[in-house]
Amino acid sequence: MRCSGCNSENPETTKFCGSCGAPLKAVCPNCGAENPPQFKFCGECGTPLRKPRRLPEPRVRKDRRSPKIF
After folding, report:
1. What per-residue confidence (pLDDT) applies to 66?
2. How far apart are CA 1 and CA 49, in angstroms?
3. What 3-state DSSP class applies to 30?
4. What is the C-alpha to C-alpha distance for residues 54 and 70, in angstroms, rounded to an integer?
5. Residue 8: alpha-carbon gap to chain centroid
6. Where exactly are the structural domains of the chain?
7. What is the structure's pLDDT at 23?
8. How far, in Å, CA of 12 to CA of 29, rounded?
9. For each successive 10 residues of the chain (70 residues), what is the average pLDDT?
10. What is the DSSP code (8-state) at residue 9?
């Protein structure tokens, strides 16, 4: 998220700029409305404000069977 005060880039999860301390607002990519940082969807048009996180692919565990002892 880019700070409107100093134009520095900040992580999307932060509420204040790490460079100048200005409060960050989420700007809707669809309609351009400013939203509070805790909003997940735009208050004007309902567009998601954050990119959805993809879960890592589950690891397939190979079966490690011990040899049969007779």
Report:
1. 64
2. 11
3. coil
4. 47
5. 17
6. 1-45
7. 84
8. 14
9. 85 87 86 86 91 71 65
10. B
Instruction: Give the list of residues 6+ apart from residue 2 with CB closer than 8 angstroms, or none.
Output: 8, 9, 10
- Name the β-bridge partners of 27: 34
Confidence at residue 18, expressed as pLDDT on a 0 to 100 scale: 93
Tokens 């589950």 map to which residue? Answer: 58
From residue 51, alpha-carbon distances to 12, 19, 35, 54 in Å are 9, 23, 15, 9
In this structure, the strands spanning 34-35 and 26-27 are: antiparallel
Q: CA dihedral defined by 7, 13, 19, 24, rounded to 10 degrees?
A: 60
- Which uninterrupted H or E stretch holds 26? strand 26-27
CA distance 28 to 48: 8
What's the predicted TM-score (pTM) here?
A: 0.49
pLDDT of the residue at 14: 83
